[in-house]
C-alpha cells in the first residue's frame, strides 16, 4: 500500500518527520518497507508566475520566448516549447536549481541561442498527471511569486507499507491515518464520508437484484444525473499520481480516490448504457463469456459472480467492469456502485482468470458491508463538487450492514500472563479507545466492543491482547527466559549418529552437498532403473515449477551425479561429495485405500568419488583415480566410525559396473549399495567414471553400537601370525576370511587380508591372524593347533594351498 | 710396575679426551685396551709376578682398565651425540613445501553447519531437537495451524501438492502439532528441516530450510520469547547484539511478531564513512524471523493431548536457515546453496 504522507496528514498529522513516522508505524505493526519521494525537490525554486509577454523564438517556430514575472520585480526570460503558452496566463515556474521528479537538476540554458532562465511546467513535469500536451494554466487569482508548493501538492514522501492480511482496513489512507492516530495520539479528522449528501430510500428507475447474497453480502448504488465528464482538478490528479494511480477523468478519478481514501472499491456505470436500468448479481453459467475492460474475452464458470443488465453480463463482480456500460466522454448519468463481495470467492476467481486489480486485491481480503457507505458518502460529495452532477434521491441498498458488533472481555491477568509484564488498565483502555473500540470497565479488566472495520480480525481475548501490546510498545517487554521446567536439551541417538556420519565423511575428505528433493521424471530411466524396482515408483508433484522438477527423488545418486557433473563442467574433475537427505517412495498401490496417505520417506546417505581421491602434490603428482576400493575404504571409514558391523557381497545395480558392484549388509540386512559407476552412466553425466555408495540411515541407526562396552584387550598379549595361500581366481576374499574365522574358533580375534598377489590362473591371498585369550597368555602349542585347523579348513573348503 | 700402570692410565685418558670422533676413539680403544695393548698384557702377566707384588699390581691394572673403559663409554656417547647433531644440521628440507601426499579436506555444507549452530544454542537452552516428514497432511500444514479454509497459501500457486490432502510442507510448523500430539506439556523443541514453496528467484528457491521453535507450559510469556531470541541472536551474531520485536501477523500465533536483530555490519544504519549500510539498508536492524505466542485456536486442535487453551500458553518461532547463513557469512544469492560448486562448499563448514 502506497501512502503519500501529504495525503495522510489531511486526516492525521502527528507533526513527526517522515523518519519518525516510519519508525512509529513500523513498531506498531504497519511495517514501512520503503520511503520514496514523489514529485519535485528544491521547493524554493518552484513558484507561481505570470506570463507578461510571449513572442515567437527568432530561430524556432515551435519555441516561444516568454517574459515571466515570478514575484516582486523578478521577471525572467524563459523559452517555452508548449503550444498553449500565452501572455496573461498564471503558470507554474521552475528556476535553476529545481530538482525535477526524475532527479535532474534544472540549469540555465540557451535554446537556439536564446537564454532561458527556467521552465514553465506541464503537469507531467511535476508528476501530477500524465499530460504533456501543454503547460498547466493555473487559477488567475493566484499571486505571482507564491511558492508553488503552497498551491499545488508538488512534493510528498510516499510510504510503501506492508499491510498484513488481517488488516484490509489499512488498505486505505484513512485506515492508515487511524493507525497513526492510535500510535501517536495526534487528532484524527472525521471520516471522509462524513456529511454524506445522500439519503436512504429507493432510487427511481433503478432496479437491482442480488441472487447470491452469500457471494455479495451488500450491494449499494446511487444515481448521479447531469454529469459532465472532464479532467480532474490538479489536487486530485496529484493525490492519485502520488499514490501510484494514473488520473483518467473526473468520474473515474473519483472512484479511485474514494477507494484509496476509504478502502472501498467503487464502480461507475454509464446508467444510460445499463439496459433496462436493471442490474442482477448472479453466478455465471458454465462457459458464459464476456469482454472485460481490458478488451479480452473471458469465459466463466458458476463460481464467478457477474453483474448483468437486461442485455446480459456487464461486469465481473468485485474484479473488473465490462466495456459495454463503461463511463465515456458522453456520459451524463452515472450509477455509482459500492458493493461487498465474498473474499475467498474473489480470490479464487481472480486467480482462475489471472485478473488482479486494485479492487480485487481489497475484496479478497474481506471488506465489511459498512464500508460501502464510507465509499458512497465520499463519492457523492466529490461527484457533486467535481462533475456538476445532481444526486438523484435515494440509495439502493441490498443486503444492509453486517452483524452487530461483538463485545470481548479482556482480563488484566490474562494480559499480564501473556506479555510477562502488567499494562495498567487505564492505558489498555486508552489504547483500545484510540483504535475506536467502545470500552467499558469490568471488575477484572475491560469489555471492548469491536468497531465494524475490525470485525473479522478481532474476535477473541488474545486478539485484544495483541492490540494493546502492539500499541503499548513491545520494546517495553522484559527479556526473560522461560522457566524450562523439565527441559533437557539432548540430541536423540539418531541425531548424534547423523552428526558423527557427517563429521566422519568430512574427515575422510568428502564435502557435503545439498541436492534438490525434486527430480526429473526421466531420471529413473536415465539411471536404467527398471519399472518393477521400488525406486521407479516416484511421487509426482501435481503442480511442479517445471517438468524437470516434477517428481521427488527415490535415490540420492541423481543429486550426486548432478553435483559431480556441474563441478566437472566447471573445470574441477576431482569431486568427492556426500549428502544426507530424504528420498520418497509412492506408497499408493492400485485399488488400495491408504489410511495414512503420506509418501514413504526415508533418510539416506550417499557419496560419490570421481577423479583423484586426494589433491595431487609434489611427491604424488597423479594420485590414482578413485575406484571401487577407494570408495569402499571411505565406506569402511564411515561405518567403522559409527561402530556399525557390516559386510559386502557381490550384487548388481543397473547404474553400476556389473563386475564392481556390492550390496552393503548391516547386521546381515540390506543397507544399500556400493560400486563403480557404469561407464555409460558416467558418460551420460559427462564425468570420467568414479564410484559411489548409498546407504539407508535408518538401517545404520538400528545397527550402530551406541554405548560401547569395555573389553579387556591389554591384560594378556595377542599372538600375530601371517598365512598365505594360493586359490582359484573365483574364490572371494570374504569366503576365505569366513572359513579362517570359522576354523580359528574363539581364540582367533582378527583375520584380515593384507596382500593379494595374482598369478597365472591362481591368486594368492595373505591373511594376518591375531589370536588372543581373555584369561591367559597363549602358548605356541595352542596357536599352532589353531593354525593347523585353519590350514586344513582352507584346503578342504576352498582348495587353498599354503604358499611357501 | 705400578708407575707404569699409572702412566698408561694417564696416557689413555688423555687420548680418550683428545679423540675427535668415534672412529679415532675406536683406535684409542684398540691402542690401550685391544688384545695386543700393554695394559691387558700386563694384566695377563700378573700370574708370573712375585706373589707379594701380585695383588697390588693386579688391582691397579684392573682399576686402570675399568677407568679407561668407562671413559671410552662416556666419550663415545658424547661423540655420537655430537656427530648426530652434525648430521641432522646438514640434513635440511624446504619446510615451505606442501605436505605430501596431500590429505583431502572435506567440509560440512554451510546449511548443515548453520543448522547445527542453531540447534546447539537451543540444546543449551534446554530444547530438544525433533524432526518430521517433509511431505505432510494439509491438516498439519494448514488446518491445525489455524489457516482459514480460504487462506491463499493453500493455493496450488503457492504450495506443492502430491495428493488432495498431502503437500510438501511449506514450513516446519506442522511439527508443532505433531510434537504436541506426541508429548504433553511442558514442551521445549526446535525442529530443523527442509521446506518447500512454489517460488523461484534470487531470494526464493522452491526448496529451503527452516528451524521451528516451540515452548509450551503454563506461564511462557512474550517476554520469554524476547529473552530466548536475544540469547539466540547473541550466540549466532555476537554478544553485543540487541533484538527488537515488531508486531506482525501469522495465523498460528497471537500476538504475532517479527524479530529484528541489530545490524552487525554498521552502527545505527551507517558505515564509518557515513554511507548507508548495504546490509540493513540504513535501518540498523535486520529481520531474522517470525514468532509469537501460540494462538489459542492451535491448542484447540491438540486439546485431547493435554493442551488447554485457557491453561497452557507458549511461544513459537520459525526462521530460515539460509537467511541466517546468508546474513552471517555474507552469501549474496540463495541459489548458491543448491548449486554445490566445490569452490562454494569448501569455504564453509
Please outline what is shown here.
The complex is a heterodimer of chains A (804) and B (349). Chain A is 26% helix and 27% strand. Chain A is an alpha+beta fold and 804 residues long.
What helical percentage do the residues of chain B reach?
40-55%
Rg of Cα set of chain B: 41 Å
> How do the strands of the widest beta sheet of chain B line up side by side?
1-5-6-10-9-8-7
Counting H and I runs of at least 4 residues, what is the number of helices of chain A? 20
Structural class of chain B: alpha+beta
> Helix share of residues of chain A?
25-40%
* Element-by-element helix/strand order of chain B: HHHHHEEHEEHEEHEEEHEHHH
Q: What is the average of the pLDDT values of chain A?
A: 94
Low-pLDDT windows of residues of chain B: none
Distance between the termini of chain A: 90 Å
Q: Quaternary state, please?
A: heterodimer
Explain what this protein looks like in three dimensions:
The complex is a heterodimer of chains A (804) and B (349). By secondary structure, chain A is α+β, with helices and mostly antiparallel strands. Chain A is built from 20 helices and 37 strands. In chain A, the strands form 10 sheets. In chain A, strands 25-28-29-33-32-31-30 form a 7-stranded mixed beta sheet, sandwiched between helices. In chain A, α6 runs antiparallel to α9. Chain A is elongated. The model of chain A has no long low-confidence stretch (mean pLDDT 94). With 349 residues, chain B is an alpha+beta fold. In chain B, β7 and β8 form a beta hairpin. In chain B, α1 runs antiparallel to α2. Chain B is rod-shaped and about 130 Å long. The termini of chain B are far apart. The relative contact order of chain B is 0.11. The mean pLDDT of chain B is 93.
Question: Secondary structure elements and their pairing?
Answer:
The complex is a heterodimer of chains A (804) and B (349).
Chain A: E1 2-4, H1 5-11, H2 18-27, E2 31-39, E3 46-57, E4 60-69, E5 75-80, E6 90-94, E7 109-111, E8 114-116, E9 119-120, H3 148-151, E10 155-162, H4 173-184, E11 207-210, E12 218-225, H5 234-242, H6 250-262, E13 267-270, E14 278-283, E15 289-291, E16 297-299, E17 305-309, E18 312-316, E19 334-340, H7 343-353, H8 358-363, H9 371-387, E20 390-391, E21 396-398, E22 407-411, H10 412-419, H11 425-434, E23 438-442, E24 445-449, H12 461-472, H13 493-507, E25 511-512, E26 518-519, H14 523-526, E27 551-552, H15 557-569, E28 575-585, E29 600-610, H16 628-641, E30 646-650, E31 656-666, E32 669-677, H17 679-684, E33 691-696, H18 697-703, E34 719-727, H19 733-744, E35 748-759, E36 762-771, H20 780-798, E37 801-802
Parallel strand pairs in A: 11-14, 25-28
Antiparallel strand pairs in A: 1-10, 2-10, 3-4, 3-6, 4-5, 6-9, 7-8, 12-19, 12-20, 12-21, 13-19, 14-17, 15-16, 17-18, 22-24, 23-24, 26-27, 28-29, 29-33, 30-31, 31-32, 32-33, 34-36, 34-37, 35-36
Helix pairs in contact in A: 1-4, 4-11, 5-6, 6-9, 10-12, 11-12, 13-16, 19-20
Chain B: H1 2-18, H2 22-33, H3 38-44, H4 51-90, H5 110-124, E1 128-129, E2 135-137, H6 138-141, E3 161-163, E4 166-168, H7 174-182, E5 187-196, E6 207-217, H8 222-237, E7 243-250, E8 253-262, E9 285-294, H9 296-301, E10 313-320, H10 321-329, H11 336-339, H12 342-345
Parallel strand pairs in B: 1-5
Antiparallel strand pairs in B: 2-4, 3-4, 5-6, 6-10, 7-8, 8-9, 9-10
Helix pairs in contact in B: 1-2, 1-4, 2-4, 3-4, 5-8, 5-10
Amino acid at each position: 500500500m502506497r501512502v503519500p504522507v501529504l495525503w495522510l496528514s489531511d486526516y492525521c498529522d502527528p507533526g513527526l518527520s517522515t523518519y519518525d513516522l516510519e519508525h512509529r508505524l513500523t513498531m506498531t505493526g504497519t511495517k514501512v518497507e520503503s520511503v520514496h519521494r514523489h514529485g519535485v525537490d528544491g521547493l524554493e525554486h518552484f513558484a507561481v508566475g505570470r506570463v507578461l509577454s510571449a513572442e515567437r523564438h527568432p530561430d524556432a517556430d515551435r519555441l516561444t520566448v516568454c517574459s515571466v514575472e515570478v514575484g516582486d520585480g523578478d521577471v525572467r526570460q524563459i523559452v517555452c516549447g508548449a503550444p498553449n503558452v500565452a501572455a496573461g496566463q498564471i503558470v507554474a515556474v521552475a528556476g535553476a536549481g529545481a530538482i525535477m521528479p526524475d532527479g535532474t537538476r534544472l540549469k540555465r540554458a540557451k535554446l537556439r541561442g536564446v537564454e532561458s532562465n527556467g521552465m514553465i511546467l506541464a503537469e507531467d513535469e511535476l508528476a501530477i498527471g500524465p499530460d504533456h500536451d501543454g503547460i498547466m494554466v493555473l487559477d488567475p487569482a493566484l499571486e505571482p511569486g507564491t511558492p508553488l508548493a503552497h498551491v499545488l501538492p508538488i512534493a510528498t514522501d510516499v510510504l510503501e507499507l506492508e499491510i498484513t492480511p488481517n488488516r484490509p482496513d489499512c488498505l486505505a489512507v484513512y485506515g492508515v491515518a487511524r493507525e497513526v492516530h492510535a500510535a501517536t495520539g495526534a487528532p484524527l479528522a472525521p471520516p471522509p464520508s462524513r456529511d454524506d449528501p445522500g439519503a436512504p430510500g429507493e432510487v427511481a428507475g433503478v432496479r437491482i437484484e442480488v441472487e447470491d447474497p452469500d457471494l455479495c453480502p451488500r450491494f449499494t448504488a446511487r444515481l448521479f444525473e447531469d454529469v459532465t465528464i472532464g479532467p480532474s482538478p490538479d489536487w486530485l490528479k496529484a493525490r492519485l499520481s502520488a499514490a501510484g494511480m494514473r488520473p483518467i477523468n473526473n468520474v473515474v478519478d473519483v472512484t479511485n480516490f474514494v477507494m484509496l481514501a476509504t478502502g472501498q472499491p467503487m464502480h461507475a456505470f454509464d446508467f444510460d448504457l445499463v439496459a433496462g436500468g436493471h442490474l442482477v448479481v448472479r453466478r455465471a453459467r458454465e462457459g458464459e463469456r464476456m469482454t472485460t475492460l481490458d478488451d479480452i474475452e473471458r469465459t466463466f464458470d458458476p463460481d464467478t459472480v457477474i453483474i448483468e443488465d437486461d442485455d446480459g453480463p456487464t461486469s465481473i463482480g468485485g474484479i473488473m467492469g465490462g466495456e459495454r456500460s463503461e463511463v465515456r466522454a458522453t456520459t451524463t448519468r452515472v450509477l455509482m456502485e459500492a458493493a461487498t463481495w465474498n473474499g475467498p470467492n474473489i480470490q479464487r476467481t481472480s486467480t482462475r482468470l489471472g485478473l488482479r486489480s486494485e479492487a480485487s486485491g481489497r475484496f479478497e481480503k474481506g471488506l465489511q458491508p459498512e464500508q460501502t457507505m464510507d465509499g458512497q458518502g465520499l463519492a457523492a460529495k466529490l461527484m457533486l463538487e467535481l462533475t456538476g452532477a445532481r444526486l438523484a434521491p435515494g440509495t439502493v441498498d441490498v443486503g444492509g450492514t453486517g452483524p452487530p458488533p461483538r463485545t470481548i472481555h479482556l482480563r488484566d491477568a490474562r494480559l499480564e500472563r501473556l506479555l510477562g509484564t502488567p499494562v495498567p488498565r487505564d492505558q489498555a483502555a486508552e489504547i483500545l479507545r484510540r483504535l475506536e473500540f467502545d470500552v467499558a470497565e469490568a471488575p477484572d479488566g475491560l469489555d471492548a466492543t469491536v468497531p465494524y472495520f475490525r470485525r473479522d480480525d478481532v474476535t477473541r481475548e488474545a486478539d485484544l491482547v495483541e492490540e494493546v501490546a502492539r500499541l503499548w510498545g513491545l520494546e517495553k517487554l522484559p527479556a526473560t527466559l522461560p522457566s524450562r521446567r523439565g527441559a533437557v536439551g539432548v540430541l536423540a541417538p539418531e541425531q548424534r549418529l547423523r552428526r558423527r556420519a557427517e563429521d566422519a565423511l568430512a574427515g575422510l575428505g568428502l564435502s557435503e552437498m545439498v541436492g534438490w528433493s525434486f527430480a526429473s521424471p526421466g531420471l529413473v530411466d536415465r539411471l536404467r532403473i527398471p519399472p518393477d524396482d521400488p525406486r521407479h515408483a516416484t511421487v509426482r508433484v501435481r503442480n511442479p515449477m517445471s517438468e524437470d522438477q516434477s517428481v521427488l527423488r527415490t535415490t540420492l545418486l541423481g543429486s550426486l551425479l548432478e553435483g559431480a557433473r556441474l563441478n566437472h563442467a566447471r573445470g574441477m574433475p576431482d569431486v568427492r561429495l556426500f549428502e544426507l537427505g530424504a528420498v520418497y517412495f509412492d506408497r499408493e498401490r492400485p485399488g488400495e485405500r491408504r489410511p495414512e496417505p503420506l509418501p514413504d520417506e526415508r533418510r539416506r546417505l550417499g557419496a560419490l568419488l570421481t577423479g583423484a581421491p586426494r589433491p595431487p602434490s609434489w611427491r604424488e603428482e597423479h594420485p590414482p583415480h578413485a575406484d571401487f576400493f577407494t570408495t569402499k575404504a571411505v565406506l569402511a571409514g564411515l561405518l567403522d566410525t559409527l561402530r556399525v558391523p557390516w559386510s559386502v557381497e557381490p550384487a548388481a545395480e543397473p547404474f553400476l559396473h556389473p563386475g564392481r558392484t556390492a550390496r552393503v549388509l548391516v547386521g546381515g540386512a540390506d543397507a544399500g549399495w556400493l560400486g563403480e559407476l557404469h561407464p555409460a552412466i558416467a558418460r551420460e553425466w559427462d564425468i570420467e567414471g568414479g564410484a559411489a555408495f548409498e546407504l539407508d540411515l535408518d538401517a545404520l541407526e538400528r545397527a550402530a553400537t551406541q554405548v560401547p562396552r569395555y573389553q579387556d584387550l591389554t591384560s594378556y598379549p595377542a599372538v600375530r601370525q601371517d598365512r598365505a595361500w594360493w586359490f582359484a581366481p573365483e574364490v572371494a576374499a570374504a569366503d576365505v576370511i569366513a572359513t579362517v574365522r570359522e576354523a580359528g574358533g574363539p581364540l582367533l580375534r582378527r583375520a584380515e587380508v593384507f596382500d593379494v598377489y595374482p598369478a597365472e590362473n591362481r591368486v594368492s591371498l595373505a591373511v594376518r591372524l591375531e589370536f588372543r585369550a581373555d584369561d591367559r597368555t597363549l602358548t605356541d602349542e595352542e596357536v599352532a593347533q589353531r593354525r593347523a585347523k585353519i590350514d586344513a579348513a582352507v584346503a578342504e573348503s576352498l582348495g587353498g594351498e599354503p604358499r611357501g | 710396575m705400578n708407575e707404569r700402570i699409572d702412566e698408561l692410565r694417564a696416557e689413555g685418558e688423555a687420548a680418550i679426551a683428545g679423540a675427535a670422533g668415534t672412529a679415532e676413539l675406536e683406535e684409542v680403544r684398540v691402542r690401550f685396551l685391544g688384545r695386543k695393548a700393554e695394559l691387558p698384557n700386563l694384566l695377563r702377566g700378573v700370574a708370573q709376578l712375585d706373589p707379594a707384588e701380585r695383588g697390588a699390581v693386579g688391582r691397579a691394572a684392573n682399576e686402570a682398565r675399568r677407568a679407561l673403559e668407562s671413559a671410552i663409554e662416556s666419550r663415545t656417547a658424547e661423540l655420537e651425540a655430537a656427530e648426530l647433531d652434525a648430521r641432522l644440521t646438514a640434513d635440511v628440507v624446504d619446510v615451505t613445501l606442501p605436505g605430501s601426499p596431500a590429505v583431502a579436506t572435506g567440509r560440512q555444507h554451510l546449511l548443515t553447519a548453520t543448522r547445527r549452530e542453531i540447534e546447539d544454542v537451543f540444546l543449551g537452552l534446554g530444547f530438544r531437537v525433533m524432526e518430521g516428514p517433509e511431505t505432510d497432511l494439509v491438516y498439519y500444514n494448514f488446518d491445525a495451524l489455524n489457516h482459514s479454509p480460504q487462506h491463499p497459501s493453500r493455493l496450488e500457486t503457492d504450495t506443492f501438492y502430491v495428493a488432495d490432502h498431502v503437500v510438501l510442507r511449506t514450513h516446519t510448523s506442522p511439527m508443532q502439532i505433531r510434537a504436541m500430539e506426541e508429548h504433553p506439556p511442558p514442551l521445549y523443541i526446535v525442529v530443523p528441516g527442509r521446506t518447500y514453496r512454489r517460488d523461484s528467484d534470487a531470494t526464493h528457491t522452491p526448496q529451503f530450510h527452516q528451524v521451528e521453535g516451540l515452548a509450551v507450559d503454563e506461564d511462557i510469556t512474550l517476554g520469554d520469547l524476547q529473552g530466548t531470541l536475544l540469547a539466540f541472536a547473541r550466540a549466532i551474531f555476537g554478544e553485543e547484539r540487541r533484538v527488537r520485536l515488531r508486531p506482525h501477523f501469522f495465523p498460528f500465533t497471537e500476538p504475532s511478531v517479527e524479530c529484528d536483530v541489530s545490524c552487525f555490519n554498521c552502527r545505527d544504519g551507517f558505515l564509518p564513512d557515513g554511507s548507508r549500510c548495504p546490509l540493513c539498508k540504513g535501518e540498523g536492524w535486520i529481520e531474522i524471523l517470525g514468532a509469537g505466542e501460540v494462538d489459542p485456536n492451535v491448542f484447540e486442535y491438540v486439546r485431547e493431548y493435554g493442551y488447554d487453551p485457557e491453561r497452557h500458553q507458549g511461544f513459537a518461532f520459525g526462521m530460515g536457515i539460509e537467511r541466517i547463513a546468508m546474513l552471517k557469512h555474507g552469501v549474496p544469492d540463495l541459489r548458491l546453496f543448491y548449486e554445490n560448486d566445490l569452490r562454494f562448499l569448501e569455504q564453509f563448514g
